[in-house]
Amino acid sequence: MGWQGDIKGSVTYQSGNLLNIKIDHHTYTGGAHGHHGLRSLLFNPETGTSISTNQLFKDQALFKAFAEKKFREKYKIPANKEINSGGLMFENEKFQLPQNIFFTDKGLLLYYNIYEIASYADGATEMLFPYTEVNEFLNLK
């Protein structure tokens, strides 16, 4: 059986100071299943320069604390329990923001690909925050 790879890119969000491109990729190189994932690329549409995660937030630590609280609520993980007690696999038992943050028409999407914090069988893990909940944290929108 041969190897296979598919990549699709699309603009998922655009404003005066932010361009979000989604890369949807799938590869199969043998084994039980292929690997699928999404990648968020953020750019300044005027300059073409990349925008990093820490540039998105006024205070990244404050947003991270907010996101962890909401994450624990959604996945029913009590505040007094380790973050991985619900079957997750955060490194060193510490909540982290994902590598992929998407701006969408519905809100800010935190997207953890398969294997980032959960098993393949669990699939991707998502948290969507309406902008009304997160505008106070954002530098850009």
Automatic annotation (TrEMBL):
Source organism, top-level taxon = Bacteria
Which organism is this protein's natural source? Answer: Flavobacterium micromati
Protein name (database record): DUF3298 domain-containing protein
What the entry lists under Pfam families is as follows: DUF3298 (PF11738)
**Residue ranges constituting the DUF3298 domain according to the UniProt record:** 56-131
